[in-house]
Amino acid sequence: MPHATGHGSRRLSLHWLRLFLRSIFQYLFTTRLARKLIPMGWGNIYKRRMKVFTLAVIIYMDYKALQQREKFTKKPKMSELWEKAHERNARRLLRLVVELEGLWVKMGQYLSTRADVLPAAYIRRLRLLQDSLPPRPLEEVCKTISKELGKTMDDLFTYFDKIPLATASIAQVHRATLADGQEVVVKVQHEGIKEVILEDLKNAKSIIDWIAWAEPQYDFNPMIDEWCREAPKELDFNHEAENTRKVSANLGCRRNFEDTKINRVDVLIPNIIMSTEKVLILEYMDGVRLNDTDSLEALGVDKQKLVEEITRAYAHQIYVDGFFNGDPHPGNFLVSKAPPHRPILLDFGLTKCLSYPMKQALAKMFLASAEGDHVALLSSLTEMGLKLRLDFPDQVMEITSLFFRNSTAPEEARETMKIFAEQRNKNMKIIQEKMSLNEKEVRRFNPVDAFPGDIIIFGRVINLLRGLSATIGARILYVDIMRPFAESVLNCNLNIGPAFNADWIHDTPALSLVEEKLRKLLIELGNAEKVLGIQVCAYKDGQVIIDTSAGVLGRYDPRPVQPDSLFPVFSVTKGITSGMVHWLVDQGILKLDDRVESIWPGFGCHGKDQIKVHHVLNHTSGLHNAMSSLTRENPLVMIDWNECLNCTANASPETEQGSQQIYHYLSFGWLCGGIIEHASKKRFQEVLEEAFVRPLNIDGELYIGIPPGVESRLATLTVDVEDVKSLSVILNRPDIPSSFREQLQDISQLVATLPATFNTLFARRSIIPAANGHCSARALARYYAALVDGGSIPPPHSSATQPPLGSHPHVPTFETEKSNKKFQTPLTSYTNIPTDDDSLRRNSSDRAANGKLFLNPNIHDAFCGSGEYGHFVHPNGMFGLGFKKNVSQDGKLIGFGHAGMGGSTGFCDIEHRFAIAMTLNKMNMGGVTAKVMELVCSELDIPLPSDYYRFIDAIDGANEPLEAALLIN
To answer: Within 13 Å of residue 248, how many CA atoms lie on the same side as its CB?
Structure first.
């Protein structure tokens, strides 16, 4: 082994050896005598423990002496010395394991598969444990068989091979021929092994208890507890026989191999002939050992394909069947000699049965790791019962990704483990800083609060499979191989559609006839796979008339959408951000004709000194492409709030202020955000809480940048591929203006990257006031219900949905984002806002007590840029002051609102006192929104906004208006 590679490994080995020595020593001298008095006898137990302790001391001192010698020995020589040390200590360990048998053989077998971690000398030696232990005497074997089966050997067999095919920790296997001529193998349990295994489990449990006490961050009690539950089952061969039959049936091993099912696996499992507690007779299958490299090469076996098929078999067992073999070491596989050389799976003594929710959670964890979806990953851990003491989503994703990493050659794998150890040290330093712990405290800190036993054997299987592939030199891409099986677990819930799922619509009574009809429409759209998850809430005359939730939270998250689920609503956020600016104007803190530079220090550079607040709200500031080049090159720059404000303040306008109305897709939010923070002298999110969240009593259901603690309620984004194709058609049209084409290209790029980007926790927690709102439809509808009534706060939400709106216990605490140095500019820097002024909070409380968000009697004109506010907006523009103006088919102004990319929307009709909000997680080009709006408006005899007429025409193929593209933004 190269010296550089071994250095990290031996440091890790020495660390664990120290822990092992301390635990053994404590156990030897503190365990009460009463616990030692078991049927095996005190002397045997004491000798076993002393042998383990003695060997541990010898190996530890050997490595410690070599470590000291390293200080004055040349590196080439040391590399040779380390190799010799690994070799002699591997021999010592093998001798002791063979002598002790029992649980220690199991441990040795497991270590022998970890070619990705251990030095090669240990792998070579311990590999002998897979099937080459010293056999028990033939007389003992025959006695067990006759006693268990109640017949003599002559009555049972016409031939019985005296030399076993293999000898393992619990049993040995002989080839034989039954009286009826069938060739079989006979598995016979070692005499007295049950007592040895149970005692070793007690010893191991005590060792783990001591380690957990001495080093709390290394609490392996969940693992040993799970092993203590499962290992004794291996001692009953009736149990193994039943397991074998079940796995064989699940994998379809006796079916026609011409089956074309996508997730079919091509493996063999021997038939069970007969079983008792200590004897198992199986069909004989002619094969070679998986670790017999020479025989495999002679047969021309494709080792890569072989291990891939084994991996697929285990993926099927875990994700499809929820019942899997927990002991896939090389000794439990054969390769059939007859072409096409299929894997033969053996030994199903240790199996694990997963509940359906746990199977779903494991599939979700795997897919979330593959997609980099922090939200789905954290919710999957919660669902499987794994509780963390800290909010460290980045570190959790790193660890999970490492767990499902591709297998590599042993040398590369050991380097990966070295990197992992270094990363762990970095993570512990982060914990130390975040929790203000000293060195001793951080060493004793365990970030895991609760560890579910069900995933222990799952983790063991993944590690064994990785070690198996490393042992025979195969490179396995786990994500590619296991993904179809994991997807099948979740897709079986998602693809059946609402027609076959009575719970697809959240179980709450319909509040009106229109809601009953709406639910029928949603079922139609769900069966047509146009809807994945959706919420719709509407107010009429201050009362809730629709409050429906339907579908599931994500493509890989089959949990049902709840009334308090949080959906990313993209540009719907602009309607909320605009409302915040108007709220500050209504408070007298800001004026619409204020120059931005008078509010925001440093903003007036590069020709921006004449830009006013109303220019920003009306999309006429000329800064529509501010940040576009940066976000195009690296979309992740959007998550850096301070840097985005810096870049926006230093941008140059492309058109003169007020001259053209060009949609400010992302820059709108940072422009408004900077104005809000500088004018209020408060953080953006604090203003949102004071202005709308608390007065409207929608706590926990409306955020712009989510806080920690709400991840389990988040919907996950996916894309309607067919709808997105229509955007490409629009982009290719020759009559599209160049400025509009550029924005559509940005939108097209965002559509392609949005699910991957905005499903990450980085993006969801970021402040992006133009596009990062997260809310429930009922919270958004209540906001618009207040706006449509001139700022009057509606009566308490009258729907019977649970939990009630405003009762969510979560109280957010927001931290200021640190600027990312990678994107810093040497120009004007953004100044942090002081937070010592509580005047806004007092004013907000006073207004809420009076039932008003706004006092301006002409607030609707202010939103729409009409009446006395008409001179603030561009003539004939589609936007008012922050809100999209909605007109009827005959051109009459009827209301205002804002739609978002993917179909979510918020809208209100002033004359009819009607407000509606819709949230979706399957992003489409607005067709679902248009269908819902058409139905609801028709039933209520309310004019449908003309945008939706045009969009419905586009859906029906009548035309393809350019304006339709803006409907989704």
So the answer is: 20
Q: DSSP letters of 22-54? A: HHHHHHHHHS-HHHH-STT-HHHHHHHHHHHHH
Q: What is the pLDDT of residue 63?
A: 83
* Average pLDDT, integer, range 724-744: 57
How many whole angstroms separate alpha carbon 221 and alpha carbon 242? 29
Distance from C-alpha of 231 to C-alpha of 233, rounded to nearest angstrom: 5
> Using CA atoms, how far apart are residues 880 and 901, in angstroms rounded to an integer?
19
Tokens representing 747 are 């939108």
| Of 963, 925, 936, 969, the residue nearest 947 (C-alpha) | 963
> At 662, which helix (H) or strand (E)?
none
Question: Does 134 have pLDDT greater than 90?
Answer: no
Q: What CA–CA distance (Å, rounded) separates 520 from 157? A: 69
Condensed to tens digits (0 to 9), the pLDDT of residues 406-443 reads 666 656 666 666 666 676 677 777 766 767 777 766 66
Distance of CA 417 to the CA centre of its chain: 22
Q: What is the pLDDT of residue 802?
A: 81
* Candidates 116, 131, 200, 327; catalytic one: 327
Residue whose pair of structure tokens reads 């072989």 in the numeric block: 306
**Spatial distance between the Cα atoms of 206 and 31, rounded to a whole number of angstroms:** 8
Instruction: Compute the average pLDDT of residues 434-461.
Output: 70
Question: How far apart are the C-alpha atoms of 103 and 199, rounded to whole Å?
Answer: 9
Task: Name the more confident of 437 and 260.
Answer: 437
- End-to-end CA gap in the chain: 58
E-assigned strands of 749-860? 773-775
* C-alpha 556 chain-centroid distance: 9
User: CA Rg, the chain, in Å?
Assistant: 34
Please choose, from the candidates 966, 916, 496, the residue with its C-alpha nearest in 3D space to the C-alpha of residue 739: 966
Is 327 considered catalytic here? Answer: yes
The pLDDT score that the predictor gives to residue 497 is: 61
Q: How confident is the model at residue 821 (pLDDT cuts 50, 70, 90)?
A: very low
The whole-angstrom separation of Cα 276 and Cα 280 is 6
* CA nearest to 560, candidates 495, 481, 506: 506
| 287-289, strands of its sheet edge to edge | 287-289, 333-336, 343-345
